[in-house]
Amino acid sequence: MADTGTQTPRERYRAHIRAEIRERAWEQIATAGASALSLNAIAKQMGMSGPALYRYCAGRDELITELVREAYRSLADTFHATAASESGTDPAAPAAALAHALRGWALDDPQRYFLVYGTPVPGYHAPDDVSGIASEIMTTLLDAYAASPPDGPEALRRALTFWTRLHGLLSLELAGHFTGMDVDPALMFAAELDDLPPRRRDPHRGH
Amino acid sequence: MADTGTQTPRERYRAHIRAEIRERAWEQIATAGASALSLNAIAKQMGMSGPALYRYCAGRDELITELVREAYRSLADTFHATAASESGTDPAAPAAALAHALRGWALDDPQRYFLVYGTPVPGYHAPDDVSGIASEIMTTLLDAYAASPPDGPEALRRALTFWTRLHGLLSLELAGHFTGMDVDPALMFAAELDDLPPRRRDPHRGH
DNA sequence: TGCGTTCGTTAGAAGTTATAACGCAACACG
DNA sequence: CGTGTTGCGTTATAACTTCTAACGAACGCA
Question: How far does the signal peptide extend, from start to end residue (chains A, B) (predicted)?
Answer without folding.
Answer: none
